[in-house]
Amino acid sequence: MNLIDTHAHLYLEEFNNDREQVIRNAIHSGVKHILCPNIDSQSIDSMEKLCSSFPKICLPMMGLHPTSVKDNYKVELEIIQNKLFGEDQKNYIAVGEIGIDLYWDQTFYTQQVEVFSQQLIWAIEKKLPVAIHTRNSFDQTMEVLNDFKGITGVFHCFSGDVAQAEKAVEKGFLLGIGGVVTFKNSGLDKVVQAIDLSKLIIETDAPFLAPMPYRGKRNESAYVTLIAQKVAVLKNCSFEEVCIKTTHNASKLFNLAD
User: Fold this and answer.
1) Are 131 and 153 in contact (CB under 8 A)?
2) Is residue 146 part of a domain?
């Protein structure tokens, strides 16, 4: 069975000692694509090097993460713009990881909104989907999205309730389901049961948020199978059906060969 890990940061230092083996593990587990969102200017080189080294497996996104929005955000944003529109632009599959994060720090909230909005404009211009990070900021994120038409994408690592999930889906977005769905009392079980499988895609967010039984340890793309198995239980369907449908959903959203 083929699966797509729709969100993983395998270029980070946590994988410096065994990156190639981690990718081999994923392939052995049936993962055919690993989608790699950018974080900021400091991660671009390592992200693009990974995707160049494994061009048929690791596929790049380009964006500025909300937690990297600081005093120098205009400089960072210009770098992202040059990557998306400059002479050396790559074949990015999405604009991401972008959004609003009010969990770690609210100091730069206004700037986060500005940066998020600008990157949505670029996504529309490039006709690319977006990978949205939203933490403690669902309402604020939706408020920004309501000013834009023609945006498609995913709410990465969705952790909201059923009502929020329905709003996101109604807006035309998919929900990225990660390892948190395997955590006891996460509440994501109700979301997965309430939302049609056609609106879900699977992700790891490696190296973060490893699913059970690896919770608290380094996550990796091979563990996407554990997430798909949990979704199958919650949807009362086969693991194969989850693989087929979520892979189709991701392939369609990111314009990949299904």
Assistant:
1) yes
2) yes
Task: Give the angle subtended at the CA of 186 by the CAs of 182 and 188, to the nearest 5°.
Answer: 75
CATH number of residue 146's parent domain: 3.20.20.140
Residue 258 lies in a domain: no
Handedness of CA 138, 127, 247, 20 (dihedral sign): negative
Structural domain of residue 50, as residue ranges? Answer: 3-253
Tell me the pLDDT tens digit for each residue of 67-78: 999 999 999 999
SS (H, E, C) 132-161: EEEECCHHHHHHHHCCCCCCCEEECCCCCC
- How many Cβ atoms sit within 10 Å of the Cβ of residue 71? 9
The strands making up 58-60's β-sheet, listed across from edge to edge, are: 3-5, 31-36, 58-60
Global pTM exceeds 0.90: yes
- Structural domains counted in the chain: 1
pLDDT digits (tens, 9 = 90+) for 39-97: 999 999 999 999 999 999 999 999 999 999 999 999 999 999 999 999 877 899 999 99
- Using alpha carbons, select from 176, 212, 178 the residue that is nearest to residue 195: 176
